[in-house]
Amino acid sequence: MSDGPKVVAAISEDSEHLADVLGRAFQDDPVSASWLPDTQERARRQRGFLKAFLDEAMAMGLVHTTPDRDGVALWLTIEPDHPAEENHLDQPVRDALGPYYEGFALLGEQMGASHPQDRAHGYLQFIGVEPERQNRGIGSALIRHRLAELDAIDMPAYLESSSERNFALYERLGFRRTGSAIHLPNEAVMLPMWRDPVTQPSDQ
């Protein structure tokens, strides 16, 4: 039995609430602060920005949450030489970010250049937990749930860590640094991380 809370698939009726959870979870994220430096603008704009990616994952990937809906993880499956198409996200992201769009677009280009494309993998696009519910194993449970599924089909996983605390968690879950760090204003850094699947022990 896995540690932490139960993990369930989110449904469309959860999307508004889970977008709120993501917005609050990323309010103090150092990478978010690097391209949305004004705290009030960040609180106002980031929720709509994250909602666009949440809707994409609902339609094209996997969205996992908990029975209490206090955490959420967005996963996509990236196929070799066929990265997830994000053109349809351009307009809702522009609408959400307004004058801050160019800062995100630059970051997106850097992330795309660092993202491995030569092997199918699960991509943890975003994960967030309600601030008052953090440090209770919710984020770990959300990630472990999907990693177990990926291990079962011998598929690796990829993510970008945006903080030292998250980096330590991802290392404990088997992720390792890959490629070059992405350096942003205000000394923020994104660290690409890769995890090879863990071979399941044979019953024989």
Structural commentary:
This protein is of the alpha+beta class and 204 residues long. Helix content is 42%, strand content 19%. The protein contains seven helices and eight strands. It has helices at 15-25, 30-35, 39-60, 90-97, 101-114, 138-152, 164-172; strands spanning 8-9, 62-65, 71-78, 121-129, 157-161, 176-177, 182-183, 189-195. Strands 1, 2, 3, 4, 5, 6, 7 and 8 form an eight-stranded mixed sheet that branches. α6 links the parallel β4 (121-129) and β5 (157-161).
Q: Please identify the oligomeric state.
A: single chain
Low-confidence stretches: none
> In percent, how much strand structure appears in the residues?
15-25%
What helical percentage do the residues reach?
40-55%
Provide the succession of SSEs.
Answer: EHHHEEHHEHEHEEE
Number of helices: 7
Overall 3D geometry? globular
Number of strands: 8
Overall mean confidence score, pLDDT: 90
> Measured on Cα atoms, how large is the radius of gyration?
16 Å
Supply the helix-strand structural class: alpha+beta
Cα distance spanning the termini: 21 Å
Biggest sheet statistics: 8 strands, mixed
